[in-house]
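$ run holo --ligand "adenosine-3'-5'-diphosphate" --emit tokens
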Amino acid sequence: MEDLTFPYEVKSVDDELAKELMEHYTGEKTGFVRVGPKGYFFPQKYREQASDIYNLTIRNDDIFVVTYPRSGTTWTQELVWLLQNNLDFETAKNITLSTRFPFLEYSILIHPETLRTMQEQNRDSPENQEIIDALNFPSAARFSSTPSPRFMKTHLPLSLLPPSLLDKGKVIYVARDPRDAAVSHYHLCKLFTICGVPDDFKTFWNYFLRGLHGYSPILEHTKEAWAQRGHPNLLFLFYEELSEDLPSAVRKVAKFLRKTLTEDQVKSLCEHLNFNNFKKNASFDDGALVKLNFVKKGEAPFIRRGKVGGWRQYFDDEMMDQADRWITDNLFNTDLRYPSWDLPNVPSLNIQKLDETPARIDYYTPSDIVNTK
Ligand code: A3P
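-- output --
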């Protein structure tokens, strides 16, 4: 462990708002916090682990997959693990991904009351008691005794991770169109009872826009990684590029990890990672929550639809307009452009596509945006 002071203020969300949110997000019973100048939003339990996570000692061969939730984390973890393990498909099938590639802050998502319910319901099953203990044990505490090479999944933004992460370890950051990430996260929260969610997507979307949702604000999260995309130890990927051309994405990740692949190996990786095959693979389900009966029957599964642009079925005109304004507003001072985001028609806004130069972006007022949908 390092000995750094955690540099951000962790503020509790105002009681009244927290109460309103907990009516929807029923997995949380105590309230929420917002962290630092960007106001990253977490359950109260984050407080207990913020400093330990920030102070993890990073080793030179650590590999982190960092994402905002529902951006293709699982897909990328499996690719990275296979590349680092000589394409050992057999072990990948037999050992769950969450064991091979642990989730750093998983335990902050499980409220103590939920934990007690889990324990009571599984009193007679020593096997499930073990699963519960593992879920509740902070990965940060286990991290220092894990032998190298270490793999870690996290949804925390870079600023809340150890400051030496990029100098010593390697990070693969995956970004996704925030509209698709929102829809996907909405479904995940419907599936997992440790979360809870508003009944209708529009209410969820309005909280999401205001950054009142786990790990939000998504655009700040992604901008932090985008700002580091030139760092030799960070690879920035879009879900949309994996989706459009998986072989190229596989080659890109292999190159980043300094692995050489034959074309046959690229092919077999793509076959394994192909959505339909991936969906059937039991090692990706969140087996722990399934075993503990903490998933809602009848909801879409964890590996759900795997499409780019599915958000269109969930957004009415007002929400599309809101999304355009919100994305434009937040990207005006960067050259980050989502491959699947059509620039809105903004007469006075000199905002350009990524592959166009120069990347000069003038400030604008949101009222300049004309909804072209
Ligand atoms: P959808 O809910 O839109 O289908 P994460 O792993 O970060 O939780 O991301 C989950 C999202 O990635 C889900 O999106 C899931 O279906 C999608 N996904 C997972 N594996 C995929 C694959 N092999 N191909 C395409 N999409 C995949």
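-- notes --
The two ends are 51 Å apart (CA to CA).
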